[in-house]
Amino acid sequence: MSVTLGHPSAGDPAAPEIVVSAPPVVAVVGVVPERPRWHAWRTAFLISLPALLVVYVWLAATGIHGAVEYRQPAAAPAVDTPEPNGAALYMQNCARCHGERGAGNGFASLFLDPPARRFGEERFQLGTTTPNAVPTDDDLIYVVRHGIPGTAMPAFDQLSDAERRAIVSHVRLLAHCGLFAKLFKRAEQDGDADVAEVAATVVKQLTPGPPLEIPKGLPPPTPESIARGQQIFAKNCATCHGPKGAGDGPQVKDMKNDNGRPTRPRDLARGVFKGGDEPDRVYARIALGMPGTPMPASLSALKPNEIGDLVNFVLSLCQRADSVARQGTAPRAVE
Question: Cβ atoms within 10 A of the Cβ of 287, count?
Fold first, then answer.
């Protein structure tokens, strides 16, 4: 193939004609130029790279696990929790009724009937010890936790056991102070005010005695036991509580507590018991009475099985009342 680059000028016929020859072009169909071999190795490496990484991680983890000893994490150091402040808890939960010093003169006590207890000046009523019925810490904790049904004393079940115990400890302190002030004032009036002697008397009067032992094997609440309890109730309790336990006995009139406030027996059919409705606590109230009230102790007058029968009868009164309320029928008399 030749290419003519120029033509001779018309005025110069002797000028030469320049012709350039090009190599022939050969067309090859279906043939791809060969790629360098290192491209194939790079492709294979990129494909196998994830697998290589997995193997590397596994080998590294195995080596570290074998070289490093595993140890349990050290336990966190114990943190000493401060003891609850009984005085502060008392002010938050109790002072509004019982007063800052336990004298029963809190601002809310003016609206309560009966008013809040005056610690030390008035006796605790719900102890389970003999012979003085002074409550143990557990007795007082029970009262703080459950309250006193039928009164304005609420249940403080939102407090922890440690907080209730701290409150009880402070209440004991207030009771000692209140009783000391009461006895010392009386001793001054008698002209025999000896601080040490009064303090010793306070400790003696407020120290709990041995816990009441409730015998095992008391009568179960069978119809026979309830019938025996009804007979014991009619003989020993009906003059105050009434023949059906409604609190309407003939001696109710002019009945007063030791502090001079009028009172009346509990309507047992309502099932509202100040000391709790568990059989053992009802047993304790019948056996030990309620100090500071006309409710006497029966421990010396009745045998344990007789008290057990009486407990079964008393609890049957409220159970039958509940049955009447649910069914709308009259209770069947216990023969």
Answer: 23
- For every residue of 168-210, DSSP letters joined together read HHHHHHHHHHHHHHHHHHHHHHTT---HHHHHHHHHHHHS--S
Instruction: Name the residue among 281, 290, 289 with its Cα closest to residue 315.
Output: 281
At 51 the pLDDT is 72
Task: Report, as ranges of residue numbers, the positions in the chain whose pLDDT lies below 50.
Answer: 2-3, 5, 9-10, 19-20, 25-30, 32, 321-335
Of 165, 150, 142, the closest CA to residue 278 belongs to 142
Residues 36, 39: Cα–Cα separation, whole Å = 6
What would the pLDDT profile of 8-41 be if each residue is shown by its tens digit?
Answer: 544 555 555 554 455 554 444 445 455 566 667 6
* Dihedral angle computed from the Cα positions of residues 297, 303, 309 and 310, in that order, rounded to the nearest 10 degrees: -20
Nearest to 218 by CA among 290, 280, 134: 280
Nearest to 166 by CA among 274, 79, 91: 91
32-62 tens-digit pLDDT: 455 566 667 677 767 776 777 776 766 666 6
Residues contacting residue 175 through CB under 8 Å, at least 6 positions apart: 102, 119, 120, 124, 206
For the chain, give percent helix, strand, coil, nearest 5: 45, 5, 50
Residue with tokens 């009945």: 255
Side chain identity at residue 231, one-letter code: Q
Nearest of 127, 121, 123, 140 to residue 289 by alpha carbon = 127
Instruction: Give the tokens for residue 198.
Output: 């009064």
Q: pLDDT tens digit string along 265-284? A: 989 989 899 999 999 999 99
- HSE on the CB side for 322, CA within 13 Å? 8
Cα four-point dihedral sign 175, 293, 134, 186:
positive
